[in-house]
Every structure is written in structure tokens, then in C-alpha cells.
């Protein structure tokens, strides 16, 4: 198993940009199909965990086509959506011309915001794509206000061995079919499992947040751990 979109080191960011340029036009459709629409429920859980409200300043990193950013804006918060991929942002802007979200192009490893600007930071399906997860977490926490909440939604690693095996077989053999059918390239979705295998998983992210002194870190397993939320508060 090897996807041309997954590489280690300095070329990682460029390959991720190429990946999302390839999938942007059909990204939302494929998400609905491969998750049977469940990704909408997981994102709703994420927004609930962020606990944002009117007057709050919120950053949605790796915002993609804007699902989470728009949901956060419905709470009355001021929302900025940031993504590395201009192709994904183009879809987001078309979807939400009057959606009350400011979309900006930027690098999650070097966020273009001052320290302590945001009341909450969310990341859906983005941390796994970062070339340097530790640097990415440092940046996410840097732009949070002390007492601000970080919420990460990501593919998980189920602790139950049988469930993990079945889940990984689905990602290995069936999910790439969606890439082939809708993007003309199975590698676009073969990337998911390859990147997940290199990702520390929800327990590894939890350990990293604890090591950074975050308050109240917790893991919420969804679908038996196939998806996960990491929630933490920046220490005051």
C-alpha cells in the first residue's frame, strides 16, 4: 500500500496541496458516501464540544469546504476559516457567499495570527495531514487565549483489535474505490489509511496535549474509536 500523495519530510505539504486540488470538486459528495452521511453527525458533536457562542472569536483550521466553520458561525461566533488549499477554499467561498465566515489561505504550521487571539480553535480532519504534528499542536495552542478550547476531530485508531482490523480493511480496499470513481485516482483516498497509520491516534494526541500542560484533556471515541474527538483547554 502506497499513495503517491503521502510522503515524509519537506515534500509533504506540496503533495497535500495536490491531493486536495484533486478532490475538492467532489470532496463533500465522497464524504457523504464513504461515511454514509455520518460525518455530519461527527462534525455536529465537534461543534457542541467547542461550546462557542455570540461574541466569541473562533478559528477553524484546515477548514476545507467550510462545514464546521459555517456551523460555528450559526452559533453567533465570529469565525475565521483557514486552509492550505486554495482549491478547497474556492469551494467554501462559493458555498457560503453570505455565510458570515472569513476564509483565508494559510499554513497550519505557521498560523498568521498573534498569540492568544481566539476563544476556540477547531480542526476537522487536518492534524493527520500536518507534516509536523507537534509543531502543529504548538501553533494551535499558541493562538488560543488562556482558557480557550481546542477541539480536534480526526480518523481514529480503535483499541479493539477486531474492530480496528475491519475498519482498516474498509479503508484499504473500499474507500480507494471512491477516489477512482469520482476523482479518477484511487490514490486520493488510499492516502487516508496510509496517513492514519503514521498518525499517533487519539491517545497519542491526548498524551501530547497533556505534556503541553493543557487542562481537562479528554478523548471522545466515535464509532468505536474509528473517529475521535480530542478536547482540551489551554492553561491559564
Question: Could you tell me the strand content as a percent range?
Answer: 15-25%
Number of helices: 9
CATH superfamily: Vaccinia Virus protein VP39
CATH C-level? Alpha Beta
Helix/strand-derived class? alpha/beta
| CATH architecture title | 3-Layer(aba) Sandwich
Total separate domains: 1
The percentage helix is: 40-55%
Number of strands: 7
Please state the overall shape, judged from the principal axes of the Cα atoms.
globular
CATH topology: Rossmann fold
Q: Return Rg in Å.
A: 17 Å
Average pLDDT figure? 93
In which order are the strands of the major sheet placed? 3-2-1-4-5-7-6
Terminal CA distance reads 44 Å
Q: What characterizes the major β-sheet?
A: 7 strands, mixed
Order of helices and strands: HHHEHEHEEHEHHHEE
Q: Show unreliable segments.
A: none
Give a short summary of the structure.
The protein has helices spanning 12-23, 27-35, 38-50, 67-73, 86-95, 133-142, 161-183, 187-198, 201-211, and strands spanning 57-61, 78-83, 101-105, 118-124, 144-155, 215-222, 227-233.
Notable features of this structure?
single chain, 236 residues, alpha/beta, Rossmann fold, 9 helices
Describe the protein's architecture and organization.
With 236 residues, the protein is an alpha/beta fold. It has a single domain, classed as Vaccinia Virus protein VP39 (Rossmann fold, 3-Layer(aba) Sandwich), CATH 3.40.50.150. It has nine helices and seven strands; from the N terminus they run H-H-H-E-H-E-H-E-E-H-E-H-H-H-E-E. Strands 3-2-1-4-5-7-6 form a seven-stranded mixed β-sheet, with helices on both faces. The termini are far apart. The model has no long low-confidence stretch (mean pLDDT 93).
Amino acid at each position: 500500500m502506497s499513495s503517491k500523495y503521502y510522503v515524509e519530510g519537506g515534500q509533504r505539504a506540496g503533495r497535500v496541496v495536490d491531493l486536495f486540488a484533486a478532490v475538492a470538486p467532489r470532496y463533500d459528495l465522497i464524504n457523504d458516501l464513504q461515511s454514509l452521511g455520518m460525518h455530519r453527525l461527527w462534525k455536529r458533536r465537534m461543534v457542541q464540544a467547542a461550546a462557542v457562542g455570540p461574541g466569541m472569536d473562533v478559528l477553524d483550521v484546515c477548514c476545507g469546504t467550510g462545514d464546521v466553520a459555517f456551523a460555528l458561525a450559526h452559533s453567533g461566533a465570529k469565525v475565521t476559516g483557514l486552509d492550505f488549499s486554495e482549491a478547497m477554499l474556492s469551494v467554501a467561498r462559493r458555498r457560503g457567499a453570505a455565510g458570515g465566515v472569513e476564509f483565508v489561505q494559510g499554513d497550519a504550521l505557521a498560523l498568521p495570527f498573534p498569540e492568544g487571539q481566539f476563544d476556540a480553535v477547531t480542526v476537522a480532519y487536518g492534524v493527520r495531514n500536518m507534516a509536523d504534528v507537534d509543531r502543529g499542536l504548538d501553533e494551535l495552542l499558541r493562538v488560543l487565549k488562556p482558557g480557550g478550547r481546542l477541539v480536534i476531530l480526526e480518523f481514529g485508531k480503535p483499541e479493539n483489535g477486531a474492530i480496528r482490523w475491519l475498519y482498516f480493511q474498509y479503508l484499504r480496499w473500499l474507500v480507494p474505490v471512491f477516489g477512482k470513481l469520482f476523482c479518477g485516482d484511487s490514490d486520493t483516498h488510499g492516502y487516508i489509511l496510509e496517513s492514519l497509520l503514521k498518525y499517533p491516534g487519539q491517545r497519542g494526541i491526548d498524551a501530547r496535549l497533556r505534556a503541553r500542560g493543557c487542562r481537562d484533556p479528554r478523548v471522545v471515541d466515535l464509532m468505536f474509536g474509528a473517529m475521535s474527538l480530542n478536547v482540551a483547554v489551554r492553561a491559564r
